[in-house]
């Protein structure tokens, strides 16, 4: 197999359902993005250069620097094989199994037991485990978690989630700018300015809600897909199920302040910092219910056993 092919393909099982959902989400997000920017240009004709500058600048920043921003925000610090031999060894084994390039390896100094992967491609990928996770998991459990995270990189759903989240960020920024009165004054000197200042926050809020729901639907499915791909790659669904049970069970022992700090990045984490049993909470959750994840792993374990 050529080096180029090994970079674009891995031994992670393909998931057509995930691919379909990613394409659909990207199409709807793109359509929403075009409508949103078009609406802004229609209302803010005199400020169209500023609109395009902000939209383009945020997109470039989100796409090119999102991995660094996420890693920095979650306190990830890159480590060498000498500094973290066990973590690097586990990543090496998973990458050898998956036949994929080794990502950068990092550790986050927090007692919250979790892990995440980020990066717009396999070449720029970073996988991070927290010190709380490394202290609590057995080697086979850690490999299951890392295989789960690296499947996000192999399936490229990290990139899709990054781009999909961009529109929500843009909508929020535009709403704040409109509320501050930064637009309209130069483009409209009549009542149109007042109408724009009233409507833009409303439109931005609607766009944010739609993009939020779309990314949440994709996020829940991609977590199930990553569980399945990791279990099939390692051949040990029970180890991943044990890690899931241990991580979610330990969350209740973490100080609320630390959980609140980790909660904004739930979509990146292996397991959410908070989980809700309420129906509305589950609808808005970035992860599927623990019971559903464990049930899928139990079925896979039975299939592999046969």
From TrEMBL:
Give the PANTHER family listed for this entry: PROTEASE HTPX (PTHR43221), PROTEASE HTPX HOMOLOG (PTHR43221:SF2)
Query: Looking at the Swiss-Prot or TrEMBL record, what is one Pfam family this protein matches?
Result: Peptidase_M48
Keyword ATP-binding listed? no
Q: Where is this gene product found?
A: Cell membrane
Q: Where does Zn(2+) bind?
A: 148, 152, 223
Q: Main EC class of this protein?
A: hydrolase
By what name is this protein known?
Answer: Protease HtpX homolog
Q: Which organism is it from?
A: Streptomyces coeruleoprunus
UniProt topology in membrane = Multi-pass membrane protein
């Amino acid at each position: 197999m050529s080096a180029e092919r090994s970079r674009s393909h891995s031994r992670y099982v393909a998931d057509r359902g995930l691919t379909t959902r990613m394409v659909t989400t990207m199409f709807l997000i793109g359509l929403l993005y075009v409508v949103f920017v078009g609406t802004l240009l229609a209302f803010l004709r005199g400020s169209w250069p500023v609109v395009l500058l902000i939209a383009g600048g945020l997109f470039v920043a989100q796409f090119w620097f999102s991995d660094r921003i996420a890693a920095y925000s979650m306190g990830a610090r890159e480590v060498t094989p000498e500094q973290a031999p066990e973590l690097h060894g586990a990543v090496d084994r998973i990458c050898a199994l998956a036949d994929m390039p080794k990502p950068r390896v990092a550790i986050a100094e927090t007692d919250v037991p979790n892990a995440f992967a980020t990066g717009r491609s396999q070449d720029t990928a970073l996988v991070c485990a927290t010190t709380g996770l490394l202290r609590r998991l057995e080697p086979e459990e850690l490999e299951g978690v890392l295989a789960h995270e690296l499947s996000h990189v192999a399936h490229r759903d990290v990139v899709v989630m990054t781009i999909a989240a961009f529109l929500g960020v843009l909508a929020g920024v535009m709403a704040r700018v409109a509320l501050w009165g930064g637009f309209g004054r130069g483009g409209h000197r009549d009542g149109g300015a007042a109408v724009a200042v009233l409507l833009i926050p409303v439109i931005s809020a609607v766009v944010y809600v739609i993009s939020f729901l779309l990314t949440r639907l994709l996020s829940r499915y991609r977590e199930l897909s990553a569980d399945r791909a990791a279990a099939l790659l390692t051949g040990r669904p029970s180890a991943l199920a044990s890690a899931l049970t241990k991580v979610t069970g330990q969350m209740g022992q973490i100080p609320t302040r630390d959980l609140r700090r980790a909660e904004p990045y739930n979509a990146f984490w292996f397991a959410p910092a908070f989980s809700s049993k309420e129906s509305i909470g589950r609808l808005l959750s970035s992860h599927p219910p623990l019971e559903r994840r464990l049930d899928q792993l139990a079925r896979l374990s039975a299939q592999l056993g046969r």
